[in-house]
Amino acid sequence: MSSVVHWIVSPNESLSCVVRFMNKNVGNKKRGSSILNFSSGISVLSTDIVNSSRSSEERVYEVILKQAALVGEQKIMKRGSVDLLKHSKADAMTNPTLLNEAYDRCGEVCAEYAKTFYLVWCRRTDELVDGPNASHITPMALDRWEQRLVDLFEGRPYDMYDAALSDTVSKYPVDIQPFKDMIDGMRLDLKKSRYKSFDELYLYCYYVAGTVGLMSVPVMGIAPDSKASTESVYNSALALGIANQLTNILRDVGEDARRGRIYLPQDELQRAGLTEEDIFRGQVTEKWRAFMRGQIKRARMFFAEAEKGVAELNGASRWPVLASLLLYQQILDSIEANDYNNFTKRAYVGKAKKLLSLPMAYARTLMRSS
Ligand SMILES: CC(C)=CCC/C(C)=C/CC/C(C)=C/CC/C(C)=C/COP(=O)(O)OP(=O)(O)O
Fold this sequence. Notes:
Layout (H helix, E strand, L loop, with lengths): L5 E3 L9 E3 L14 H5 L16 H24 L16 H18 L3 E2 L1 H11 L8 H15 L6 H12 L5 H15 L2 E2 L2 H23 L9 H22 L1 H6 L3 E4 H6 L4 H6 L4 H25 L4 H23 L13 H19 L1
Parallel strand pairs: 4-5
Antiparallel strand pairs: 1-2, 2-3
Helix pairs in contact: 2-8, 2-9, 3-6, 4-7, 5-7, 7-8, 8-9, 9-13, 9-14, 13-14, 14-15
The structure holds geranylgeranyl diphosphate (GRG).
Pfam family, one: SQS_PSY
Catalytic activity: 2 (2E,6E,10E)-geranylgeranyl diphosphate = 15-cis-phytoene + 2 diphosphate
Keywords: Carotenoid biosynthesis, Isoprene biosynthesis, Membrane, Transferase, Transmembrane, Transmembrane helix
């Protein structure tokens, strides 16, 4: 059995969102005060890969504001005692047996693939560009996938998995934008294998992972007694996605280079006196260690930002989120323990450490809620 804890966000909506830990393989602040600070001193440039003069962070913050507004609207609707379920967009799935089966199927997918954290729709999107058929994937296929997304948001799911998500988005204040942005991330991945600056890399991390945080919070819910602004909670959720993705990137430098990809800011590599050839050669030098120290420091800053938001989530979500944060963060420790050899040694967190993270996370969430 690979998983010790299997957490489901909401008891009956059992699964458009599932967190799994312990897999055998797993080797009212406003913007400006937080995320911007992470990158300052490293590089906040206005280089934009989406043909706009806005910086990536501004682009992402607009999505957060839209999401926060949606939560506000839902509160007003509830106060006006409108039964959201009665007005559900998901007319196609009024059959509860079918719907339960749809959620069960999603559960099976999670049980099969999830290592740390998992959303079925995200997995399927990722599979399009990273799965066995990835070499045949075209921008047109991604366009069709996006149309399917729009359809399911409008209550016209295409299959069982879509039906579960369609049901969930009809019941929670979930905005479609992060989902669309994730597909944009896949489009980007098809054509781009280098990142000029951290600003470019940040946008990529938002597309493929920050979006996951934004999709999750409306379902997890913010604690009713939370004093934090909705934006600040979304900001932390975004930070967790970014932190996880940066960690993933740092863990997989060698593996990615063997696929001809370098997900590291080129300007920072240059400043560290490193060339692409150094990465393809994969030698751990003093320059590489110094560069990696800076990258790890930045990833940890995003984890710290994320942690601030955990206490603001609904009680049931705090522990699994914090546990997943602590687990993933330890991959950074493991890169250090490997003396920064992320070319040929895979950084992973051992079972004992993983097991220990669970009660630690539990104790910390108890301390916060008391
Ligand atoms: C902190 C607050 C307020 C809320 C939490 C919001 C959430 C749930 C954010 C999670 C974001 C997330 C998990 C993004 C995915 C990033 C990522 C790199 C996932 C990799 O997952 P796996 O594929 O299981 O990992 P491995 O590649 O290590 O196997």
